[in-house]
Every structure is written in structure tokens, then in C-alpha cells.
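lol ok so funny story. i was supposed to be doing the assay writeup but got distracted and ended up predicting the structure for this chain instead. priorities right. anyway since i did it might as well share w the group, maybe its usefull for someone
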Amino acid sequence: MAADVVGSKPTSRPNFPPSKIPHPGLIVPVPRKTNASPAPDTVPPGSTPARLFAGTSGWVYATWKPGFYPATVAAKKFLEFYASQLTSVEVNYTFRALPTAKMIESWLAATPEHFRFSFKAPQRITHFKRLRECADDVAQFVESLDAVREAGRLGTLLFQLPPNFKADNDRLAAFLAALAPTTPPPIAFEFRHESWFTDATYEVLREYGAALCIAESDGLATPEVHTAASFTCFRLRRDGGYSAAEIKGFADRFAMLAEARDVYVYFKHEDEPTGALNAVAFLKRAVGLQR
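and the output, tada:
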């Protein structure tokens, strides 16, 4: 299992205090059949559709060598290389701890101007308080990302609810209503209980301009409903990755969506580089559609 630094599956990890988050180590993955794409070539900046952003949910994976990261790339240069291949990352680190100003500064310095950072909301909001009385927590979370927002590099804030959190549209509406006066960044909700997949939920999201995160895993698939006018996001989490034909289908469809809104696409991250390679293949196809 990959280290929970700025990626992997934080909801499956022990709850370490911020100061005790373990340093990532070298972990040998169990070989399995995947739909990984060939080793990447650099995607030229600005060559993909302007409103289409793609990547994975983290980048600190020594086990992505040499399939994604060249063997000679040092860990401190991982993000710089990652950003030469992909156009966005979903930062899962914020699920457990807020980033420091120094961390944010280094992330911005390592990535080009067109690169976008999305962030997962803290578990204190989504799992512990379960959207109740957490306006101050959200404000602190958003404030910690001010430098990213001011640089024009902020993607979405993902509020991923736990699988046992059943639909409560009154609570969802109250949460979003409390945030509305603050003009928050783009917000997306990933619901992991199927009771949320109703017109009533979609209407609440539309009312407050929040997106339904369209997530696909082996156990649950979110209906494709676009509730925010200016952006949408996809999380593609199927084990083993996606075939070339499936990636082509995603690129063709999402590039069309990106003609009218910002589209954020995040492939699954694991010890193997399958998701990163799928994301590179996706962007290459998107580049080809522009020619």
C-alpha cells in the first residue's frame, strides 16, 4: 500500500496526527495484470484543450520508477517531472493535515502556470463532523490554499463523504448555504452511498453551484450528472486501469465537455504507475483531437 503523503487511499489509513504522518518508503507492489500505457513522453504545455486538466491523486511514489518516473529522477524532483507529463493533481494530503505555506510555495515553484491543484477536504469536515457545524473548519482549509488560489492554480475542493453516510439533503443544503456568503472556490462532492443519487440531491448542488463528482470504482459508479455550470470532475478508480479504447472514449467525451466548462479528471493512484500512464495516454489523445 502506498504511503499517504499527497496521494493514495487516505480513508484506509490509520489516523496519524499531522506531525506523525509516516515518511514514504519503498514498497514493492504485487504484480498484477493492468491496462498501463507505454512509458510517457512530455505533453507540450498548452497543447491540450485549455479547460481540460488530468492527472492522479498524488505523485510521491518511488514504485512508479521506472514505468513513469525515470530511474535517474530524485524524489525531490518527482513533482517537477509529474507536471511535465500531466496537467493537474488531486492532493490527498489535506485529508489529514493542512499544508504549510512552505509546502505550497514549493509545489507552485515546481509546476508550470497552466498546472492545477485540486485538494481533498479534511476528514474533520467530512468524516468526523459529517458536514455539521464546520464553517470554521472549511474557512481554515480554504485559507490554507490562498496562495494557490491567488496564483490562479486552484482546481476543485473535493468533499468525499464516507460510504456509510446516507443521503441527508437538508444537511447538505445547510452546509452549502453556510459557505455561500464566503464565495468559496469550486466545490465538488463525491457521494459513496447510492441513496444520494437522486434529483433532490442534484437540485441542492445546482442551487449552490457545486459539482457532483462523477466517480467510478469497481463497486460503485456515480451517474453522470453535471450540476455546476462552469466545471465538473471525474475520478476514475477502477482496479487495473483502463484499456486504450476506453481512454480514447474518455478523451473524446471529456474534450467536448471542456469546450463549455473546466473538466478535471483524476485516475486512480496506487503503487503501480498504471493510473499515471493512463492519464498521460488520455492527454495525448486530447492533444490529437486539437490537431
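The chain has a mean pLDDT of 87. The chain is about 30% helix and 15% strand.
back to the writeup now i swear
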